[in-house]
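Table S4 entry, 3-deoxy-D-manno-octulosonic acid transferase.
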Amino acid sequence: MAPRTLSLTAYMAFARGTPGSGNAAPLPDRPGGPLVWAHAAGVEQGRSLASLCARMGQMRPELNFALSGDTPAQPGALSVTLPPESPAECERWLAALRPDVLLWNAHDLRPALLAAAHKAGVRLIAIDVTDSGWTSPAPRWLPDPAAATLALFDSLYATGTTVVGRLRRMGLDPDRIHKGAPLLDIAQPLPCDDATHEELVTLLSGRPVWLAARLHAAEVEDILRAHRRAVRLAHRLLLVIVPQDEDEAGAIIEAAGAAQMRVCNWDQGDTPDENTQIVLVEGPEELGLWYRIAPLVFIGGSLVTGTGGHDPYEAAALGSAILYGPNVGRYLGAYSRLVEAGAARIVRDADSLAGAVSNLVAPDQAASMAHAGWDVISSGAKTVDKVITDVFETLDEKATA
């Protein structure tokens, strides 16, 4: 018996002493039809996995989903709590849930649970396999069961060549390892009326445009101050302001009206002309249009505390270079990924924002950043497509077996 198999055998012997039914998770009420079980550890991982499940549900409405860990609740999906690491309890729990596929987006391994799922014929798919350490409930005096547990997976989607090489050196089957990109929480691109878009492109006649999207009222003075400075270097520069919601719009409209700049109120039927310096939009309903118009976007909710920022992928998916403030805790992973790719840049205040706008509003600069952002989005989308194909092929094979 190989040492790595021995490590899992030793762990299973240890796990048999784990408390059982007294601490067991409630058994799930399993619906009829095929079922995909999705488990994530981490807020961003959970959101991305929930987004993937939502997309699969749209493509195949007959699918059922069971969500665990940090995967957020979704309408119509089961929310389940994992059983204790007792082989008997894991087998009992899986016999009730009867999943067809498991999507595992977590580095915290559960060897007894995963071994029971493998034994039950569940297809095990690991997503976002990175080069970070794997953990398990195994005590330090036991051999590390990570390699033997990873060998249970039918597919492992690794985030880069380095990770692929590491998995192969661990002795995993190369045919099960797939090079991919991190799974991203990307919704469908925001819609846009094509006729309005064409009309605006013609109307603006190549003017440089930047957008303050999902802006909060507490940020508007910094945005207006930055625009005044940037206009000194690019006198035809146009700012479009889109508030986060109606609650923020009132104060933003008042501040823009008092800015002593030429303002066009889009929702009141005004049309921007050559003299317009600010286009004011009262809500985010047409944000898809403005992302397509503006090559450079500042994402609001990031210069103020308490909001956690807003999703940068909705701008990157529509070809925008991104600026943002330091307060993006809810989406820190997404912003960090875009910064690493060269698709986003952080600003601290009105002065640094004005400098960034002046430097990046040039078409070649914004286009370079936007292209980098699109690479991030498209690489994540390719991985999503591969995972969905993997899941659907499994379900089709089981349906015809």
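Residues 243 and 249 are 6 Å apart (CA to CA).
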